[in-house]
Structures
1.
Amino acid sequence: MKHYLSIFFSSILAGMCIFLGATVFLLVLPTNKVLASFLFTLGLFTIIQFGFHLYTGKIGFVLDNKPSYLIDLVIILVTNLLSAAAFSYLMSLTKMGATLHETAIGVVDSKYNDSWYSVLILSFFCGIMIYLAVKGHQVCPYPVGKAFLVIMPVMLFIICGHEHIVANASYFAYAHKFDLKTVFYFFLMLVGNSLGSIFFDCLIKLTKKFLPKEENK
């Protein structure tokens, strides 16, 4: 029970970190998208540094864990989404709410009017980028390199318009957009983020498996 409670509270904090990144992104986006994408990286960087549980950062390692890990993932996903959406809704009630709502509508409408297969593909590549950020931070021995390998993939997925399910929970909450199509698109984001991360993890494992032993050290 303590294990699941720990995951639950850690997942709330992770959702809050993504909410903070999404909020500053929306505030800066109208003036400078590159700077906005850079400031968004604070969310994932904080999550990695504190070891919080973020679904898109955990799903890529599902093959390294026991079947019970799937329960952890469900708790993480649901809590991340509710946390990011709830904090965003609370922020929308402040004096900045109107500005955030207006910008979020533009961001969400672009996603909402996209085709289902485009959302799926963009989510797939976002999964890869988040895996690169998390795994890159793990394996890089240099402090500067660790930071670089978190910041660059996150900036890339934002600038390229990739779909991150938890960040979108924040955007959609700010835009006050929720209907059956929203649920369907979030399902596509869930599938895409998951497959992208798992796919890249499998490629790395296969690469190591078939490399000569002296090259695999």
2.
Amino acid sequence: MKKKAIFFDIDGTIVDRRMQIADSTKAAMEKLHENGHCTFICSGRSRAYIKNPELLSLKFDGIIAGCGTHVEVGGKNLVCHVIDKELLSYTWSVLKKSGISPLWEGIEYLYGDEEGLKDDPYYRFLKTQLKENLIAIDGNVKDDWKVNKMSVVIKEDADLGAFEILKEHFHLLQHNPVVAEMVPAGFSKATGLEAVREYLQLGTEDTYAVGDSINDLDMLRAAGTGIAMGNASKEAKEAADYVTTDIHDDGIWNAMRHFGLIS
């Protein structure tokens, strides 16, 4: 079989809510490589939060991070978009005034609105995971911060007009009424996939994408074959060409076998 490139989301696709990876997923990744295919992480997480040794032990051929703002293949950076510092400062001021707390996501560090996020359980979890690689924004603004994209927590009384003000600079991915991602205009998981596809000189028909969430929609549509997990959102399932089983029911293994990529 001709070499294929398969792009995998992380959360809800490779790892579950407990950050566990199914044995069948590990076996599928090994089989894919044995069969000469290339595998890639394609995540909304920025590169600073793709450090899990167990995840990286799956020997991906490259990483698309921060919804396409950072792309690396074999250690070579194909894309590395950093938000302009003046825009970052302006965005910070707009969001803070509007009751929206940002988490800046970068290549080496994540930077949080410490005051606004201190009671958020996910932010507290990140602090235990990233330790010194998670820095408070408040009172620590530096010229050398490198930020690719951001996530935000929206308070109940927030002024959502902030997103209208910033819409020419960022594409908003609303996961639920409380949490959203703000991705620099012109970037997405799909643009990251395309950068890799062109670098490898593969046709669109030679690409597969697997995901479960709203930030996977462009990727699922851009790939030759889009695969939604059984636990995926309604929108992801509608964007996909095929729906596999749940993450806890060998979803990746079953999808790869369904398309003859492994046996």
3.
Amino acid sequence: MIEVRNLVKLYGKHKAVDHLNFRIEKGHIYGLLGPNGAGKSTTMNIMTGYLGATEGTVLIQGHDILKEPESAKKCIGYLPEQPPVYMEMMVLEYLRFVAEMKKIPKKERKDQIDEVIAMAGLGEVENRLIQNLSKGYRQRVGLAQAILGFPEIIILDEPTVGLDPKQIIEIRELIRRLARKHTIILSSHILAEVREVCDYIMIISDGKLVAGDTPENLEKGLRGSRHIELQAKAPVLNVQEILDELPGIRNVEYKKESNLLTTARIETRDARDIREQIFTAFARKNIPLVTLKLSQTTLEEVFLELTQGKQVIPLTAEKEMEVETDGGGI
């Protein structure tokens, strides 16, 4: 559906996008995740034809965005980070203008406009000037224009910026509904938002693609992603003696909380859950356990590991989303 090949964007000597390669398949919600300045918006602007690439190619349904811009853009609805609205127009007037620009047949315009107004929750403000709307409502107007015409691909750059918590939940639900018939690509630096709505996540750092997979597989991808944590009322040496006798432990990190309280982070072979054996071993020595829990690496930890440590998490072979990086690794 979308193929990005060897994409590079230079601003002077600064490389905002650095040899990106990925493929987007139909029927999923994809998230572009990265810190501010990672290259997310630049990538989206190139994909939609707003910017030209220094190198590389973007194909939309087989159409080159630079060589066949009209054919490619017919397949895309786009909400940039700053909604492309005309402040002096009323909401309904603006959507009629967008419908005409998108060449939606006249007999279909009213029904489509009414539908996107309802979907975006704009019924109460459709006859108000856009300049008099709150930032959240302007964002909704921008979303409505992206949906209008119901293109196969909808690209959203920071779609919940400026919205209150209730509106954010409503927009997330709207994105899920749209995904039933459309492929959605959204960018964000808000981890919870991406984790909540996306089927697949691509993490970008310094213009490079450092990981791509489902949220669950990304969380499992780091070494030691599943571990056991315990707190025991005993000195470090006593805790260490007990754990040294247990089979199946790969590594243990100890932390002395006080003279009589020790924390241990246990990594087991094959990520096995040996909490029962640990509990029994400590009970035999009459050493009380304050806590004993199984922990999983979170998306936040993965994000920090990848964007600060530049580690690369490989994709699983069976995934529909195909992602490559220059020089391998994903």
4.
Amino acid sequence: MYKFEPLIKQMIWGSESWMISGVENNETLVANGSEKGKSLNALVGELKEKLVGQENYERFGNEFPLLIKFIDAKRDLSIQVHPNDEIAHKHGKSRGKTEMWYALPSAADAKLYCGLKQQITPEEYKAMVENDTITEALAQYDVKEDDSFFIPAGRIHAIGGGCVVAEIQQTSDVTYRIYDYKRKDKDGNYRELHTEKAAESIDYTVLPDYRTAYTPAKNEGVMIADCPYFTTAVYDLTEPMVLDYSELDSFVILIAVKGEGTIKANGEEMAFGKGDTILLPATTTEVVITGTVKFLETFV
């Protein structure tokens, strides 16, 4: 089991804690055990399929495929979109970005944008950015604890001030900024917008609801996301549970979002409570979790 030293990033709108990252020049370092101080991608290069799984190693090589963050937004983030892999490659990036949010306790008035609520064309989109009305085309949600939003590449989105979320995403830091409320940075300059690249990347499909519908349950895994880039379930435990990974050809990341307990795997035992993010290698066959703890489980 591996824990990592988080990377804390102060942003114009709040802060991000990168808990597990293989992003170039932003790699997290192992915080425990004999591998302490080693970067995540170096660990992948050393252990290969024993860490990430055979198919994942063939697919991603020595770059770890997921980035795990906690985001604490004090102010609204910019309206943005991420490209898919094809468009990202076109612009010289290694991959696009599909992601998901899981809401933690947030401010009572916290809101976010996710998806289009009305049909617009690329030309109308550009005009709405220019005349400061683009938010009128977006679906807005009040945010409450345990809400989940899946954000495939191409879906316009933005976290609002007061939101606190756990984010699971492809290992990619490519973002096309659509609109930033005409805010200026510390030097008095507007932040760069990527209007043309965003217009190319946006999926203009309108859906009736973008919040993930799921029924919470105690002491069992409840699926909240399943896509080619990650599969995520939420567990709300009040009694001990054994997780069987003997047939899974992937690493597993467990992200504690509430409560506390212990986790036993591979002959080790460690505390597992709110904020802890643990990477289990693909060789893990069985995990025992005790305590009263809610956590996300994600793998590729």
